[in-house]
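Expect chain and fold; thus:
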Amino acid sequence: MKEIDCRGLSCPQPVLKTKKALEEAGATSFEVLVDNSNAVANVKRFAQSQGATVEMTEKGPDYLLTIKPGKHGQKASGKPDTYVVMITSETFGEGDVKLGRILMKSLLNTMWENETRPEKILFLNSGVRLTCEGSEVLDSLELLGEAGVDLVSCGTCLAFYEIADKLSIGHAGNMYEVVDSLLGAGKVIKI
């Protein structure tokens, strides 16, 4: 079985190598070797989004992911009438920070109350703080998550702010997932 060694590669390289392997594999299974749990989660989530099944085993200090491609074209993708929201700040709008926090909570509550909810909310830059311990909007995000909205925080941003261990809701994603979400959405709204 073909093995792709992604040890030592930074995000999103393991996902990009997995994407290329899936495109070339046809129905043939292959293995991806990674050296950290973030790469495991990112590769697994991506492969499953493409209709593949993934099994993980530990191989010494590393992780071996056995990927079995699904039927060609089985990718889980958004519909043209869906939208993705990209939040890049912990406040809504410019000006007074206190007002910006009030507006952000109101925005998220209103999104949840609306019949047409986003398919996904991407949190980038300081926006990732909204998904972490101590955030004033965790209750609003929990309601959105329970309603089926996928909540994705940039893993690089969480690491930059040194709050990856404080993530309380949703999952840490990678830049490939962000770009794929933006390009696959019928509409993107940046906050």
Observations:
- The two ends are 45 Å apart (CA to CA).
- Helices lie at 13-25, 37-49, 97-113, 138-146, 155-160, 175-184.
